[in-house]
Amino acid sequence: MKFEDLLLEIGGFGRFQVLILFILCLPRINLPMHFLLHNFLAATPSHHCAIPHQEAFVNLTTEEVLLINIPREPDGTFRSCEMFSQPQFHLLLNSSLQPENNSATQHCQHGWVYDHSQFTSTISTQWDLVCEQRGLNQATATFFFIGVTMGAVVFGYLSDRFGRKAMLLLSLACSFVFGMLSAASVSYSMLAITRTLTGVALSGVSLIVLPLGMEWVDIQHRTFSGILTSIFWSIGNMLLAMVAYLVREWHWLLVAVTGPCLLSIVCLWWVPESARWLIANGKVKQAHRHLLRCARMNGRKDFTISPERFPSFCPSQALRRMATDKKPGRSYSYISLFRTPVLRKISLCSGAVWFGVAFSYYGMSLNLTGFGLNMYLSQFVFGVIEIPAKMVMYVLVNRAGRRQSQAWALILTGLCIGANVIIPKPFTSLRSVVAIMGKGFSEAAFTTVFLYTSELYPTVLRQNGMGYTAFVARLGGALAPLVFLLDEVWKSLPEVTYCGVAVCCGSVAFLLPETLNVRLPEGIEDIE
């Protein structure tokens, strides 16, 4: 007997499952508030070189002081990273005149002056992460995603070894501690380290929440559960825009997005361990207790597991046989994902798809100022558009299947990014529409890949599989912010890179098997 047969007896989607899913959605809301926090934490306001006071400037206005000390861009704005070696007083007579010596410019010698009308303080203004130090600013997001990458490996293994719930509690507790330490950072080095450790901890939340909920739900409601859980990511997206709008100081912004981890820890005590995991690891009595609790809450009070009703399925005998090939003393690791032919193909292809999904998603999400909208509005609209995208995917993955939906969502994401390379900058409305469509396709691809991957791997390796794919995805997430630095080579090179990777990785999805209406595999032999 398979676990799905047992779910039919105790209720595969009743009050018990609804309660679990909604509790697990609380930490899900918190994830994008950290994953996309870089947009506001490291925002760089307009700035120019600080100009030391001179007696000759006493009778000049601020605008005139800037005029004679800061070179202009072709569009008339003042340059951010250069100043004249000597004040160009002749420009006061006619600002259209050329400087006396056009080459007499130098890098900022006395720091920078920032526009604080939008942000009270960011890490860019705190530690002058601009101009020559711009790479360190972008690297802050990369450090975070490197942490998420490491956490995917660690928590993928630990949650298969020690259980989903225990590791979820640990990751939430560590997220709170390291998040608060980040807010208290007194140097860039301290911030980089604590943000990396926060990424490690939050990776466990990202990795465990969906499978823990899915393993309690029957086949018919699996897709709905996956989509419901992912909608709360979009809600977190929108909440981030509102929190960032209200909190303009980076220390307190970190406190605001980290605090909800405590609420998640408290609520998680009502969530049971995965009965699938307990059975697969021979913890029969605990699984039996949770199954009876599920049956009672779902109104199946007459449910009992007995030899008379289930000759091959009782606590003393067959619950242990349900562990499939999880024999006592046998352990699984990431190497197991590549030992057999079919699993090897699934692991290689799903890894490529995850890389493309994350690389293009964060490439769009971390570029809020590139589409002609206010950054708070962009963040909110990008969150709003994700919800109808998920609704459409709910229909498509059940009609067209997981494979086709995954492939085309990612390919269309790439095409939308590529389209904005061609559309001229003055067409801001059209560029905004195409960007929003691309963000919708990108989120559709992300929603599908979480659901799809959790169905591809067997129970005994599911968290290892999710950990491996999350590791590859976070590599994509870590590289995405650094690609923005390629605009110094060619202005459109970042967008061309995101487009090419999304289209290529989307095509790889056609090589994966279809999982629509297929039982969740429990052992390796179910895959092979």
DSSP strand count: 4
CATH class of the largest domain: Mainly Alpha
What is the string of SSEs from the N terminus onward? HHHEHEEEHHHHHHHHHHHHHHHHH
Query: Low-confidence stretches at least 5 residues in length (pLDDT < 50)?
Result: 310-316, 323-329
What is the name of the CATH superfamily of the largest domain?
MFS general substrate transporter like domains
Helix content range:
55-70%
Secondary-structure-derived class: mainly alpha
What is the fold named in CATH at topology level of the largest domain? Answer: Growth Hormone, Chain: A
Q: Could you report the average pLDDT, rounded to the nearest whole number?
A: 86
Q: How can the largest sheet be summarized?
A: 2 strands, antiparallel
- Strand content range: under 5%
What count of structural domains? 4
In CATH, the architecture of the largest domain is Up-down Bundle
